[in-house]
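[job 0417] fold request received: Pyrroline-5-carboxylate reductase
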Amino acid sequence: MSETTLPAIAILGAGSMGGAILSGLVQPHVNVDGGIRVTNRTAAKAEPLDALEGVTSYALEQTPDATARALAGAKVVLIGVKPHMVPDLLRDIADDLEPGAIVVSVAAGVTVETFESLLPENVSVIRAMPNTPSHVGKGVTGIAPGTRSSDEDLALARAVFETVGEVVEVPENQIDALSTISGSGPAYVFYLIEEFTKAAIDKGFTPEQAATLVNGTFAGATELLMQSDKTPEQLRIQVTSPKGTTEQAVTVLQQAGFAETFTKATDAALARARELAAGS
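[job 0417] inference complete; emitting structure tokens
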């Protein structure tokens, strides 16, 4: 794996998603000049991160000026706090950001407009939507430029998120739609696995056997797709022998409106994302 060199980074709120990105930044092939500074509210969350090489971790409850310390010299600032906390945080950090810093949002539903309205004009904003497989280096992140970000800023943000997986660049008006696919997508997959596992148990398998059968099938099918030059449809047809058992199962799914259900589900997620954005 080729070495990646990044400038100093601050992660404000190294919880679930911020922590996932941090896990990519501390990989051996990633060199962060100037180090990584992270903040969390409590010492219980901050202390384990301080043991990571190249990471300085601050607890807000112990260090009142933790945020300012984390921001000093940081070229990339990742905002990882919960969406409702973002506006107040941006007001607090506006004067501490380095000129030319890139502020990257991973907060769902908070628009670039909100960020840019609360931050100095000499700071650029990029909106990102990573997903939970980033925790294991298999993430898919959508990134969208703000009105003040340059191609170089976007390239730097891409490099950060490539440490935990793949990156797709889109305009901001597609970020909410992207969130319904890659952002929420792992939940859809887990739900399918959950229900498929229940079906296996109903067929008489133990929970352990069912987990092996179902989890292995999903993992194997995904790996086959990744390594194949065939589309998912072609691979499905390849498994589905005419008048065979798989064809009967697929027919039941089609008759139940399985395809339409995915459209309805992602449409519902998109409507909610837009509601959140409107209120940000």
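[job 0417] notes: The chain has twelve helices and ten strands. The longest strand covers residues 139-145.
[job 0417] exit 0
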